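Aggregate trends can hide what the representation actually does to any particular protein. For completeness, the protein is quoted in full, as a sequence line and a line of structure tokens.
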Amino acid sequence: MKRTALVAVLLALPVLAGCNSNDVTASSETSSTTSSPAASDGSSSAAEGASGETTTAEESGQDDAKTKPFGSTFTWDDKLAITVSKPQPFTPSEYTATDSKFKKFVTMDVELKNGTSKVYETFSITLSGTSGDQQTDQIFDSANGVEMPTAKLLPGKSLKFKVAFGYTPGQDFTVVVNSIDDFNRADGIYTTKL
């Protein structure tokens, strides 16, 4: 009887040892995939990038979008970069082109920097907005300098312009930026509560 019990224990040891080693491997693989080390070039991780530093789509770990606070810079992989300032109250002039259902408006300063090696057509930049659960259209007001750019931007140069949107007070306000020159670009998303 003792011999049978001893044989059973000896046969069970390799099985138990194998289970334990697999569990350790699985847990170490899990911990290595959940950690977010800094990018190899010394830049911040995606979580740190949301604090207002420049973050590329590749560093963000997301292929389709990257959310950042207003006032920070979003840089695409080809080094085209955009910064959208914090929204400021805005009163449209009588010449504003809009059919907006909103009663309140904000304006933002946008800086577009061409870090690519090619001339960039600035009309390719797109900005769309939402306020709460409603889409808000971009408004244009040439009397207040709120117009979309149309200039060609040379490599290494920057261009500043203003954009404006309607909003509902107390709601989340979001602006999504992208460029139609390359459909593989990730969306840059800026959001706050107004």
